[in-house]
Amino acid sequence: MTAAAPAAAGGAMARATVSVTIDNEREIMAVNAWFRRWGPRLRCSDNQGCGCCVDRWHIEAPAEAFAELPAAMLSPAVPAPAPSLP
């Protein structure tokens, strides 16, 4: 699932990686409900997981959106490397 709509103006945005295990029905239900609720306010990568056992997305969202997910489904986003100096 990919949502690419711009975030609402004024809200603080946070970045994280959201991962779910395919055979964990509770995780799948939770992330699907979360995407339905927050989708218009997310900037989301395509699924970066293998799809056979894990789904994983790199997401930018309002901080309060991430607070709704179980901590086990979140990991901090890896910051982009700083440009090298000449």
Structural overview:
By secondary structure, this protein is α+β, with helices and mostly antiparallel strands. The protein is built from two helices and four strands. The protein has a four-stranded antiparallel β-sheet. The longest helix is centred in the middle third of the chain and has 14 residues, at 25-38. The protein is globular and about 50 Å long. The termini are far apart.
Question: What topology does this entry show?
Answer:
Blueprint: E1 13-21, H1 25-38, E2 43-44, E3 54-62, H2 63-66, E4 74-76
Antiparallel strand pairs: 1-3, 1-4, 2-3
Q: Per DSSP, what share of the residues sits in E-state strands of 2 or more residues?
A: 25-35%
* N-to-C span: 40 Å
Instruction: Report the count of strand segments.
Output: 4
Secondary structure: helix percent: 10-25%
CATH architecture group name: 2-Layer Sandwich
* Quaternary structure: single chain
- How many discrete domains? 1
Radius of gyration: 14 Å
Q: In one word, what is the shape?
A: globular
